[in-house]
Description:
The structure is a single chain. The chain is α/β, with parallel strands linked by helices. Among the domains are: about 180 residues, 3-Layer(aba) Sandwich (Rossmann fold), CATH 3.40.50.300; about 150 residues, no CATH class. The chain is about 55% helix and about 20% strand. A 6-stranded antiparallel sheet has the order 2-1-4-5-6-7. α8 packs antiparallel against α9, α10 packs across α11 and α12 crosses α13. The longest helix has about 45 residues. It starts with a strand and ends with a helix.
Amino acid sequence: MISTIQIKNIGIIDDLSINLENGFNVLTGETGAGKTLIIDSLGIICGNRFSKEMIRSGEEYSYVEACIYLPENENAIDGNIIISREIYQNGRNSCKINGRLVTVNELKEFMKQVIDIHGQNENQTLLDSNSHIGYLDSFIGTEIIKIKQEYRKLYEKNEQLKKELKENYGDEKEKQRKLDLLQYQINEIQTANLKIGEEEALEEQRKIMLNAEKIEENLNIADIALEENAIDSISEAIRALEKIEDINQSYQEKLTELKNIYYEVQEIERDINNLKGNTEVEEAERKEIETRLDAIYSLKRKYGNSIEEILQYEEEIETQVKQIENSEEENQKRLQEQEKIEKQMNNFAKQMSALRKIAAEKLTESINQELTDLEMKQAKCHITVTAREEFNKNGLDNVEFLIATNIGEEEKPLSKIASGGEMSRIMLAIKSVLSEVDRIPVLIFDEIDTGISGHAAKAVSKKMKKIAQNHQILCITHLANIAAQGEHNFYISKVVENNKTKTKVEKLNEERTIEEIARIASGDINDISMEHAKQLRAS
């Protein structure tokens, strides 16, 4: 049970602490006083989504903390577990269980075993037919738990085998498709006959071709400058030094150096002259280079950023082809194991299906009796158990709760029911039957009494009180009948302090409880409404 909840900076709630009790807790009060904000805060602590617009105006963060008494839970300290969640304007989110940081998903997984929130527009669990099998299995209880546990071990192993087969191309069509793709890629790369360094050489040739005119012009200038100027000038300098080389050793040394330079310049001039002959551009050769480079660029876009990477990719996919071609034996072993597991799964699924079909009849009968008690005498619930074609985590059964709300009407899924009042009573009928086997300790009802009144309202209040024998109930209501059945009544109001509105919670004594019932019943507190309230309280 929730013993205490503390809420800070959510909507008009400033800093609010509520001490709840076991049994039937009823919250009533003014419209807009913050009743639903309290339920929203419990939703936040359950891991629900939170909008930063909910943070109280002028504050940087919101904070919700709940002390939950769960003596049998392994996380409990002296029977208590402290859950907290802090959310900031910048989006930072801090969730803790007994001071230990957890993710929102971890918080949600933990709290869904503790609190079940129902609102007029929030019966998603009941409206979702995928959850109906869980209700039926809860009704069956321990008899199906062990079978389901064994089945799920096999189911998880079977799913792993499916995954391994898919990854190892156990599907023949997928395998052939992959082989065809890889072989196409190998052929495309091999046909290109790529050579390392080829791209760079082609790029160099292409660059020369693009600049042929400029190259030829400047090579001519260099050739003329060397042949007509540099070589003649050096030759004249050599002849001058030859005339004085006998006079001093240093002149002879410079002459030798100058002759070496002369020979080098001659060699350079011959090389430049030869380069001039390489600048002529053949159109066919240019097109061939462009075509080859385009082919290389195309392969690079598909298989790598360089020829080295493309060739490495070719090696990798050749290895992959060999692995796929050799995977048949390994996959056959997996398929044989899968066949064996599915036979065992099928056996467990049949056992669960037999239990569900028997239980579906009993649960249908019990719910229909509850609907009669809830002033839905013409309504008939029918729980169907039909076969699936493929295994899922619950076996080979589809379970759905169908309802016909009036005589002569066809059965429809719960999601097709238009009346919110009918939906509320159907949900209460199911909860009432399952209350003894339902392991979720805290049930929260947010104005689910909308659309009902009179005898139906009285019947609903009795059922909720019955459910409260096995669960802690927290209920927001506008109906006097339900408020009258409360074991612990709280009044929610709003007050203005320092020019700011905030929510206030007051736990009511018996006298104040009767006054509140009178106010809800008639809108006024007078002798007649007080007498009526006392009668409701005593009934």
